[in-house]
Specification:
- It is a single chain.
- The chain has 126 residues and is an all-alpha fold.
- The chain has one domain.
- It is built from three helices and no strands.
- Helix 1 crosses helix 3 and helix 2 packs antiparallel against helix 3.
- The longest helix is centred in the C-terminal third of the chain and has 34 residues.
- It starts with 8 loop residues before the first helix and ends in a 10-residue tail after the last helix.
- Bound molecules: zinc ion.
Length: 126
């Protein structure tokens, strides 16, 4: 396993966003939609130790706010304002974008936490 100094943040973010282990880039980090594997099947990197908790949800909501804000402004100025249609389309678009972004953001945040060496293990577990 490479030392803490050799952890490249860009590589770890990209590997995590792709659902790959930030350490080796080969093993999967998810076993299902959002459930993390306990460890990488390829390099045995402990993945649960770097689980990002609620961070991906907050980051996904923030990103959706940045994306959907301008889209709502454009939709409100270009198309005639139909509140019901705008609400229905907005709910569907937000749901789809949230489901797509959440997994990517969780993987990227796991890679980021792994790069920094931050984990949720107690001192006697490390
Ligand atoms: Zn691995």
């Amino acid at each position: 396993m490479p030392g803490k100094q050799s952890r490249d943040i860009g590589t770890a973010l990209r590997r995590g966003a792709m659902g790959r282990c930030p350490n080796c880039g080969v093993g999967q980090i998810f076993q299902g939609y959002l459930t993390l594997c306990p460890a990488c099947a390829y390099c045995d990197q402990n993945l649960h130790a770097h689980a990002p908790a609620a961070g991906p949800a907050f980051m996904t909501v923030a990103l959706l706010g940045l994306i959907i804000g301008p889209l709502l402004w454009v939709a409100g100025t270009v198309f005639p304002p139909d509140s019901l249609a705008l609400a229905l389309v907005g709910i569907v678009v937000l749901t789809i974008l949230a489901l797509l972004l959440l997994r990517v953001v969780k993987g990227a945040m796991l890679g980021y936490l792994w790069t920094l060496g931050l984990n949720n293990l107690r001192k006697d577990e490390q």
